[in-house]
Amino acid sequence: MMKKLMSFLLCIALLCTALPALADLDTAFEAGNLKLVETDSVCTPAVSDFKLTEDMLTVMAELAPEMDVPAMVEEALKAGPPTALSLAPSGNAAILELAGYGVCFFEGKYHVIYPGASRGVEDTCGNRKDFFMRFAGNYRTSIDDYSGMIWSPDGRYVAISNMYVLFGGAKVGILAPMIIDVSTGEMILLDAFPTDKGFGQTVSAACFSRDGRYLYYILYGRFEDARICLCRCDLATGETEALLKSEERAFIPPLRELADGSLLINDNNQTRTSEFGSVFRFAEKDGEWILEHIEGTATTRYASPSRLFYSEKSGYAVTLDNTLLVRPYSFQVFRPEEDFVGLDRYLCLSEEKDEVISLTGAELEAAATAAQELCKDIEPKSRDNAVNALPFRCIEYAVMSPDGNYLLAVTVSTDDPIADYTREVCMIRLSDLAVRKVDGPDARSIALGAYLNWRRAIEWNTDTLIIVTDTGVKTYQFE
């Protein structure tokens, strides 16, 4: 038994390594020798290795009496090794799935995830059972969304925002603010809202403050006087306060805290008639929170931001922009702490060679207009045909490196708007926009799915990448 335990902990430790010093990656990038290789899965633990506390079993029995939790765990262990779903950037924690059941790992110990009752707010609306039953047996699809898992700086807590459920067509009612204490496995309810038969309030985006004291989150849904509400929960006291309400569409994840304590979030307002903005910033000024709309000089009505990345380590931020409101064919690289320098241009990946093309807003509009003209006689007439005719590669999915200096992108290119496509993985160095091809997994196997704007296909928090493929969730490292 001890041998099995040590083997399991060793495998977890190998996956949950601290952030790498990416010198080897820098060298490989310079040499043009980037290759991802699949790593071994974690080992199968023994039944006695799981910590099933009396409190955990009592709460589960109360919420779901039809579930025999100990039997479920024992059966799950027979199904094979657990799947790594998320690794904390701090390198000391992970969320795993074992035959559909959630397991968390923190500093050498691991626990079954369960809906606790001893901490958090009173569940006056019955959300704990709804939350638990939604996740039980369905962890992979429940957290396989745009933001993935949102980790606290020390790796102890993880939050979940679920845009995939929000836009997936299911009337889920409410996804209340909930965090998981990875050191115990307890799911903690931070606030409670009444259940709505149709579309209620849901946590669409969240982030922990840099000092780990607060969880900021956006409530999106039906309010009397607003579309969104920015909230802040003090994790030490459990108190939650509403900081700001607004009618703006500042709810698309992720939410990121900047060095000055302000918060950055995407501007996905596709209802503007003339031009689209780039990002929103929540900021506290003179004791009051305000929402600022940050526009770049390259703003164009042909590009609407769909994804946002930010790294406090490098100071870089990146937006992927949907061209003609369809798919991302352009992106912007800027520095929020340096007066948002970089928002004066659009960047596109050339179809012909591995290089980035810099365009003004007017030049991007001209390219989009020419693509529309080229496809005006193609049936069916659609924006899809027009964007396929652009002389750039579509960035179907992207993720920022742990140090914030690279962007790993899954791209698609085609010379004919109705022809088959070519998909490949490449890496962009943000300092000079150099591009290198990445070998390894078949790019067509990466499971982007119909909701590729919201589903998390790749996580890169440590030197181990988690990639969702058409044959399952797998882990990779650079060779």
Task: Note the topology.
Elements: H1 2-15, H2 23-31, E1 34-38, H3 54-63, H4 69-78, E2 83-87, E3 93-98, E4 101-106, E5 109-112, E6 114-120, H5 127-135, H6 139-143, E7 149-151, E8 157-160, H7 163-167, E9 173-175, E10 178-181, E11 186-189, E12 199-208, E13 214-220, E14 228-234, E15 240-246, E16 256-257, E17 263-266, E18 279-285, E19 288-294, E20 303-310, E21 317-323, E22 327-334, E23 346-350, E24 356-359, H8 361-374, H9 383-388, E25 392-400, E26 406-413, E27 422-429, E28 434-439, E29 458-460, E30 465-469, E31 472-478
Parallel strand pairs: 1-28, 6-11, 9-12
Antiparallel strand pairs: 1-31, 2-3, 3-4, 4-5, 7-8, 8-10, 10-11, 12-13, 13-14, 14-15, 16-17, 17-18, 18-19, 20-21, 21-22, 23-24, 23-25, 25-26, 26-27, 27-28, 29-30, 30-31
Characterization of the model:
- The structure is a single chain.
- With 479 residues, this protein is an alpha+beta fold.
- Helix content is 17%, strand content 38%.
- It has nine helices and 31 strands.
- It has helices at residues 2-15, 23-31, 54-63, 69-78, 127-135, 139-143, 163-167, 361-374, 383-388; strands spanning 34-38, 83-87, 93-98, 101-106, 109-112, 114-120, 149-151, 157-160, 173-175, 178-181, 186-189, 199-208, 214-220, 228-234, 240-246, 256-257, 263-266, 279-285, 288-294, 303-310, 317-323, 327-334, 346-350, 356-359, 392-400, 406-413, 422-429, 434-439, 458-460, 465-469, 472-478.
- The strands form six sheets. Strands 24-23-25-26-27-28-1-31-30-29 form a ten-stranded mixed beta sheet. It has a five-stranded mixed beta sheet with strand order 6-11-10-8-7. Strands 9-12-13-14-15 form a five-stranded mixed beta sheet, with no helix packed on it.
- The longest helix is centred in the first third of the chain and has 14 residues, at 2-15.
- The two termini are 33 Å apart.
- The model is unreliable at 1-21, 163-174, 195-199 and 450-454 (pLDDT under 50).
